[in-house]
Amino acid sequence: xxxxxxxxxxxxxxxxxxxxxxxxxxxxxxxxxxxxxxxxxxxxxxxxxxxxxxxxxxxxxxxxxxxxxxxxxxxxxxxxxxxxxxxxxxxxxxxxxxxxxxxxxxxxxxxxxxxxxxxxxxxxxxxxxxxxxxxxxxxxxxxxxxxxxxxxxxxxxxxxxxxxxxxxxxxxxxxxxxxxxxxxxxxxxxxxxxxxxxxxxxxxxxxxxxxxxxxxxxxxxxxxxxxxxxxxxxxxxxxxxxxxxxxxxxxxxxxxxxxxxxxxxxxxxxxxxxxxxxxxxxxxxxxxxxxxxxxxxxxxxxxxxxxxxxxxxxxxxxxxxxxxxxxxxxxxxxxxxxxxxxx
Length: 343
Description:
Blueprint: H1 2-18, H2 22-35, H3 43-57, H4 62-82, H5 89-99, H6 114-118, H7 124-127, H8 130-154, H9 158-175, H10 185-193, H11 199-211, H12 214-219, H13 223-240, H14 255-261, H15 271-295, H16 305-331, H17 334-342
Helix pairs in contact: 1-2, 2-4, 3-4, 3-8, 3-9, 8-9, 9-10, 9-16, 10-11, 11-13, 11-15, 11-16, 15-16
């Protein structure tokens, strides 16, 4: 319920910006981030897109007026939301401590991010101090989302904004501090917005994101619901979106990257076949791990064998998708042209 409300406000924000209702979009996102702090995953794309629009309009004319209006909307929204908690300083600090539970550590459950996966090889919590863990997660998160944010600020476009929502949210999920399994919803929602544009990669990502929640779904007794809905979703995507017919470099939005690297990486010529093969191997692997997790008892010495396997496999997939979505953002030459058409 809580996730649905904040995600709903964020979607209203995206919809408003798509109609150039920048103030309404800013208000909707402020409500989303104040309702649940995890909307920070989407905050930088909203900020960079709106700032880029202001730069584009000129900070000595219409752009400055728009910037002032957006700033007033954001400040007023935050002030109204925080007003009930501003009676005492200690109360504000208590709210902040609850919003950012740093004392709980780098991670808790078997979440499919880089820190939990690395913990299989290196016991990070024992090797690094809590403060070092916090700084390390911040540095990796910031560095991995920075390229997409810079590109969006310099070349703001609605299409680039949607892709940046995906790549930035995925960076937060993979590298930030104290990530919950259900936080993958913050990546999946903007991916859903692109399913008609990149059907194969969107379908693939959404399958993996649901698979990454398998330990949680098994704990809640939702195995049957997971299997039925996953198969139904896959069948719909195969029939309605024809995902296997849209695997060319152009369909995957990688034409520019391919042209710039074809001389150095000959395998790009067979990229379509490679992607299809990887997709089939991935779905097969997820099916096998699902079957094993549901039917087999893990060894006594390795009680978390299956949840850890699901997390590691999902994490490797997410790293691949992070590289893919960043490649689309950085090598997409259509953003500037699309923005000119919109203007």
